[in-house]
User: What shape does this take?
Amino acid sequence: MRLRGTKSEISDKKRQFGLWLGLPKDAKEPKTQAELSEQLGIMTTTLAHWKSDPIVIEARESAIKDLGGNDMYEITRTIVSKAKEGNFQMARLYMEWQGEIGKQSAKEAPLEFTLSYATKKDRNKD
Assistant: This one.
């Protein structure tokens, strides 16, 4: 499906989407990507494809920089870079910040335990 509108109008919608992505979850209006897609007259699948568009990326980074200054911008860039390298914790942190996933409750938190075992040699000592 081809988007309707001039190149300028589509670029403007991409910028709006990028700026929206750069906002913290509680500052976003509309609150959801589905609501934003409706407001912009764009399908949600199109917005998903736009996330890697240079216009969207530039606008998102600009919003982040404007909101938090250079420190926040650098922190966000580091988190995104580490997430792209495969760092699961950084990917989760970024997704939580963007509101893509919720924070774990205490009930959902992973259990940590240590499993130890004795070798045959150790068992024979007793």
